[in-house]
From TrEMBL:
Residues 1-141 form the Histidine kinase/HSP90-like ATPase domain. CDD domains: HATPase_GyrB-like (cd16928). InterPro entries: HATPase_C_sf, HATPase_dom, Ribosomal_Su5_D2-typ_SF, Ribsml_uS5_D2-typ_fold_subgr, Topo_IIA, Topo_IIA_B, Topo_IIA_bsu_dom2. Signal peptide: none annotated. This is DNA topoisomerase (ATP-hydrolyzing).
């Protein structure tokens, strides 16, 4: 649960990247185990939300399911928990601070256990745009530990960089005397991830096969590469969320791959009697590493634990 707080805030920044407004996200583990997440997106809207009579940023950080509903050209997809993420992080923190760079101004507001400490205020000017959120997890709720695992955070952030090609994600650990910083940026996206996963294996073909397409508000990316191993490793994602149980997009991938192999075998691998080898429908692929990324502008049908896309 502790690390999931980070993912929920990072997801908001990823949304801005997916909408085409952000290319850099920075995550810092600060002394005392507070977390700072900053991006160079548009900045969370600060206009008064008519229905609530409060600034949009305050509504997003205090009301469930409020995220991603403000301003023109909103988020294309969402990897968070159906819009509840930021407000839940706020409620589970002893203190949360938000800095918004927008409209050539720097806005600030603080919260204590989800309740605004004061109204949103202008505290300066800014020629840039973006959002910074700092939160302090509540030790009364997270009683087991407040210590963040740097390697765990770095591994997931690297995965997010692979899944969002061209995006730079940086993580810094400021808790030690000498800060540790890692930066992730992959122009090849999931294709680069397949190469990374196969780095210690003998590959059958040097370049991974890569397919990318958009249709009816759905974006699909597939990258695969055969290797000298014996098992298949297929990694499925929906809106950047990993699925341990696969799902319809993984089933579709296996079906399509089987059909391509069978069509090729029928055309080129017939024996003297005209018989061809044939894979069973959706046969388990072997000796292959593959990544599947499904991004939907609609609401994909998955449970909040994100185990399987239906």
């Amino acid at each position: 649960g502790l690390h999931h707080l980070v993912w929920e805030i990072v997801d908001n920044s990823i949304d801005e990247a997916l909408a085409g407004y952000c290319d850099t996200i920075k995550v810092t583990i600060e002394p005392g185990n507070s977390i700072l997440v900053e991006d160079n997106g548009r900045g969370i809207p600060v206009d008064i939300q008519e229905k609530m009579g409060r600034p949009a940023v305050e509504v997003i950080l205090t009301v469930l399911h409020a995220g991603g509903k403000f301003g023109g050209g909103g988020y294309k997809v969402s990897g968070g928990l159906h819009g509840v993420g930021a407000s839940v992080v706020n409620a589970l923190s002893t203190k949360l601070e938000v800095f918004v760079k927008r409209n050539e101004k720097l806005y600030y507001q603080a919260y204590h256990r989800g309740v605004p400490a004061a109204d949103l205020a202008v505290i300066g000017t800014s020629e840039e745009t973006g959002t910074m959120i700092r939160f302090f997890p509540d030790d009364e709720i997270f009683q087991e530990t407040l210590e963040y695992d740097y390697d765990l955070l770095a591994t997931r952030l690297r995965e997010l960089a692979f899944l969002n090609k061209g995006l730079t994600i940086e993580i810094t650990d400021d808790r030690a005397d000498k800060p540790i910083t890692r930066s992730f940026h992959y122009e090849g996206g999931i294709k680069s991830d397949v190469e990374h996963l196969n780095r210690s294996k003998e590959v059958v073909h040097e370049e991974p096969v890569y397919v990318h397409g958009n249709r009816d508000g759905i974006e699909i990316e597939v990258a695969l590469q055969y290797n000298d191993g014996f098992a298949a490793h297929i990694y499925s994602f929906t809106n950047n969320i990993p699925h341990q149980g696969g799902g319809t997009h993984e089933t579709g991938f296996k079906t399509a791959l089987t059909r391509v192999i069978n069509d090729y075998a029928k055309k080129f691998w017939s024996d003297e009697r005209g018989a061809t080898a044939r894979c069973p429908e959706r046969c388990p692929p072997e000796r292959m590493t593959a990544m599947l990324s499904y991004k939907s502008h609609h609401n994909p049908n998955f449970c909040r634990t994100k185990r399987k896309n239906k």
